[in-house]
Amino acid sequence: REVVGTSPVAEEKAMEAALRPKALDDFVGQKTVRGQLSLVLESSRLRGAAADHVLLSGPPGLGKTTLAMIIAGEMNAPLRISSGPAIQHAGDLAAILSSLTEGEVLFIDEIHRMSRPAEEMLYMAMEDFRVDIIVGKGAGATSIPLDLPAFTLVGATTRAGLLPAPLRDRFGFTGHLEYYSAEELELVLRRSAGMLDMSVSTHGFAEIASRSRGTPRIANRLLRRVRDWALVHSVEEVGRSAASEALDTYEVDRRGLDRLDRAVLEALCTKFRGGPVGLSTLAILVGEETETVETVAEPYLVREGFLARTPRGRIATDAAWTHLGLPIPSGQER
Ligand code: ADP
Predict the structure, then answer these.
(1) Is the pTM for the entire model greater than 0.90?
(2) What residues flank ligand 1, with Cβ below 6 Å?
(3) Which stretches does the entry tag as region Small ATPAse domain (RuvB-S) (predicted)?
(4) Which of 66, 137, 301, 307 is most buried, judged by most C-beta within 10 A?
(5) What percent of the chain has pLDDT over 90?
């Protein structure tokens, strides 16, 4: 999981910063969101006012942080970065909000993990650019109103449905990021390979793209692992077989499934004869948090047709059994 999992490690953070596209035009794919967002930004430029608040939803690694940076860049505005888990008290949020400057873009990653009191403070800040700071406790507590400069909030969440409706409704625009096509991932890879000074053939790019789970972050990560492999094996130009051998070494299979994905399918097939089984049970069996299984592994497994959601729980499709190299059980065995 450390090599090809989903949470960025230190090397990756530095590399991600370097590989991030800086302008909306350099941002590959997501045509719909890009088009909508460019209207929102253009209109705000024409009005000379801060852009509407933007909510970006989608699985990790699809470009939400990158888009927040691009929004700030295109608006020529400073960017402040925070995250839901870092905002546990209303005071944490008040401190951030009260230090914002006019037009600043505030990015809150994993905004669904903010605490309730902070969330409630955010409602008023978003709507009226105002907060009430509570001073003191109990009967003696007073609230001091504080005006804020107009700012643009960019919230990111793995699923818009995780947000309470009152918060969701306060965003002027919600963009849903989709998994990338193989062609789009090849574009991301080509650009990154150029920056890493790597030589990769067209087939090599295709091989890496097909194993990247539709996710640019994973594509870039696999590219770096292929670079390591090529360096150690003195391979000058990475072709299909080199890429495929390298990625086999890192346990990323042909369909892009990593260890967690396969663990979920294996648990489902071997422990529950293909299901149906509840999500939390599955999560315990694979030793992950329910949210990780639900927002990281499951969307991709569903998209690839390995797993289906039913009212009674998750079930493995025939394709899952086949992919794991197991015989598909007959009707009575299930
Ligand atoms: P998220 O915030 O959704 O988890 P990030 O914005 O951090 O994802 O993106 C992860 C990595 O993927 C970054 O290094 C970024 O350069 C790359 N990336 C994401 N989307 C794109 C894109 N559309 N074009 C090029 N690179 C991208």
Answers:
(1) no
(2) 16, 19-21, 27-30, 60-66, 156, 188, 216-217, 220
(3) 181-251
(4) 301
(5) 84
